[in-house]
Amino acid sequence: MHPAPSLVTSTTLTGMGFGLMAWLGMLQTGHPGWVAAVFAALAYALAGGGLLAARRPAARHRSLAAFAERQTAWHARETWLAVATLATFALYVAAWLVLDARTAALGWLVAALAVATVASTGMIYASQPAAPRWNTPLTPALFVAAALAGGALLAGSTLAAIWSLAALALLQTAYWLATGREGAGTGRRPGHGHVLALLGLTCAALLPLALLVALPFKHGLAALIVALHLSGMVALRWLFFADAGHAVGLPPEKG
Fold first, then answer.
1. Which of 101, 111, 165, 245 could form a disulfide with 185 if both were Cys (CB 3.0 to 4.6 A apart)?
2. Angle of helix 74-98 relative to helix 104-126, nearest 10 degrees?
């Protein structure tokens, strides 16, 4: 099974965007207001770009029609949470820009909403009866870990990135062990699937983690680490959908 590129792109980018929002809300760093504008633009570009990619036919489960099903469908809950996160983050950034001040309570609310949005994205797939590999609590946990790892790297927080990348590596390994990954569904021989999985995990978490621990965090290194992480996440997310063993488009969900 070959996942739609729009699905891989949307879940990867939105995760990083909401992860960045979460860390900006939690860290409460002393950056000046103009830095807020840069961070906010990056977060909105990633989250917005991912949401736009999700509007493509292969990912129509995130359409505006989801609002009408908010009581029963995880994709509708994700839609509501995404709107709430974007609106709350706008207020948070506005106070940061105009008043050069941030309210801790509002920042933590942004973080909670952002994490809940990403978790609900993971639950969309964890609730699919047609994909047994996804039916585990590790699925939303893995989505959250990936979002927080990418967000921490973009926020430039070394300590947060180290812990988040370590958590991502552990959860990804646990997910593979729990689901008995054998390269099924990738359209390749199992050996090729394992190679891609190893490369993805190395680029997304292991190598960035090693570089952060061994070298001082400077702008050039930061750009390299973010590029490695993003490329690795694309590979891991592609495998996530490819291993599901069914066509990813508009599947039914449990509610």
1. 245
2. 160
The total domain count for the chain is 1
Give the model's pLDDT for residue 12. 93
The most distant pair of C-alpha atoms in the chain lies apart, rounded to whole Å, by 57
In 10 A of CB 33, how many CB atoms?
14
- In-domain check, residue 248: no
67: in domain: yes
**Which pLDDT tens digit goes with each residue over 34-45?**
777 888 899 999
| Residues with Cβ within 8 Å of residue 97, at least 6 apart in sequence | 33, 36, 37
What is the tens place of the pLDDT at every residue in 83-131? 999 999 999 988 888 877 778 899 999 999 999 999 999 999 898 877 8
Residue 30 is part of a domain; what is its CATH number? 1.20.1630.10
Is residue 101 included in any domain, yes or no?
Answer: yes
Across 6-20, 45-59, 234-248, least confident range: 45-59
pLDDT at residue 65 in the model: 44
Q: What range defines the domain where residue 145 resides?
A: 5-242
In this model, does residue 57 exceed pLDDT 60? no
Phi first, then psi, for residue 168 (nearest 5°) are -60, -45
